[in-house]
Amino acid sequence: MTDDTWIEDFTVELRLRRVSGPAIGDAIASVRELLADSGQSAEEAFGAAREYAASLDLPVMNAREQAVRTVLLPVVGLFTFLVFALASTAWFDQGLVLISVPQLLLLAIPVLLTLMFAFPFYPRAVIRQRWLPPVLLVVVGVTSALAALFAPGSASDAWLVFSALPLLVGTAAVLLVLSVIGTVATLRSRDDDEIVEPLQAQGEAKRPRGRHLLLIAVNWLFPLIAVVVFAMVWGFSLLRP
Hints:
Layout: H1 3-16, H2 21-38, H3 42-46, H4 49-55, H5 63-91, E1 96-99, H6 101-115, H7 121-128, H8 132-149, E2 160-163, H9 164-188, H10 201-206, H11 210-219, H12 221-239
Antiparallel strand pairs: 1-2
Helix pairs in contact: 1-2, 1-4, 5-6, 5-9, 5-12, 6-8, 9-11, 9-12
């Protein structure tokens, strides 16, 4: 294992332990300094990255605040997007959102899988086990497809019945609000959780911060996908005889 790979693993392990960005930068700088002085490899000097990260007593971020940023907002966004997709299809069909019990249970699976990121063991498993992310994507895809198959054919067969237009407008508004909240949170936190090594801090400050632009783009992912879904449903409706 190269030193750069070890440091990448070390950084991931510290992130999984909710260590703040500045503290990670200091820890990485200390590692690089010792490696330069000793001439050893990182694995020889510190052992496994996971064990060394666990041995350090470093300041961590507030668990509740991190859960809101990384779990609550994505879960609410995912749930809102699913409802928006259902409302879009219903709006161009019969104007009613019809939901059966099996369909509701199947749609709850992607939400629950996202909600589980609030528990420390889950993101660690997803990151460490390379086979797990593809499996989760397959599960989400299969459950979404099965949910479509269990859609009620009429209002009499549905467990829940909603008017499509209020849901369509309401969920679109919620998606926009969540994106604005996420963007504001990203802009406010641009300096308090950046991983910057002390010796590189001055140079990093002068560089364009593409990472924050990427995070802002991620905040607007659900609204953008919602626009695409709405356009596709509209297009398919125009092709109907």
